[in-house]
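Reading a protein record of the kind used here takes only a little practice. The record below shows the convention in full:
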Amino acid sequence: MQGVVELRIPPRPEHLALVRLVVERTAAVDADVPPRRVDDLRLAVSEACANAFDALATAGSEAPVEIWIEARAGILAVTVTDHAGGFDLDALEPIPPATHPSRLRHERGLGISIMRSLVDEVTFTRTGDGTTVRLVVHT
């Protein structure tokens, strides 16, 4: 099967439950993805949305976050787009390895690492006015 769901949500954490539910239901209806992989994708999507919310708050914007959930032969993909000005992925401070003592000083900033560890593909694209994150799980 093939399906696409598009959401536009206000940049507020209380909307994350809705996004996670729609990812789960799209996977159940339109994709043959094992439940564990759906859970991984839901968590990665939560991280991408939280980063978008933070970026919009920093920019002083209430612009909606756009989410595309796509199920087609062989993949379940979620694209999260914000309009918060974008960021340079290469300019981010690297996070120390989990076993290094300095890691204890990093309460935040782990979202990108978490996304990369949970999905098969993750891409970050700077748009004209923000950032698009595409998360893909292969079925």
User: Anything to note?
Assistant: The first helix runs from residue 16 to 30. The first strand starts at residue 3 and ends at 9. The domain at 3-138 is CATH 3.30.565.10 (Heat Shock Protein 90). The chain has a mean pLDDT of 86.
